[in-house]
Amino acid sequence: MIRALLLRYLPRKVHDMARTLAHFTITESGDDYLLHIEDDAGETIEMTATYDQLDLLVEAIDAHLDEDAEEMDEVEE
What secondary structure does DSSP assign to 29-66, as a single string? Predict the structure, then answer.
């Protein structure tokens, strides 16, 4: 989900190679939120998102982390 969101806003040439997330911040900006996403090369993407969009991101991240945790639990058994 996050990758799809980022790919939607990045120029085609830039996202041909995946970049490594180094840092991100989320701050309130009026009724919306401002996201700064920085890669390991120091390049920053800035975008706005609504509360509902951030909520969808949280749900998607939680779902993926839950799946990974379940897979790790299965490996440990």
Answer: ETTEEEEEEEETTS-EEEEEE-HHHHHHHHHHHHHHHH
pLDDT tens for the chain, 77 residues long, are: 556 656 666 655 555 678 899 999 999 999 999 999 999 999 999 999 999 999 999 999 999 888 877 777 766 66
d(CA 60, CA 31): 22
As a whole number of angstroms, the distance between CA 75 and CA 77 comes to 6
Strand order in the sheet with 21-29: 21-29, 32-39, 44-49
Token output for 67: 């799946």
Lookup: tokens for 54: 């951030």
d(CA 55, CA 72) in angstroms, rounded, equals: 26
The model scores a pTM over 0.90:
no
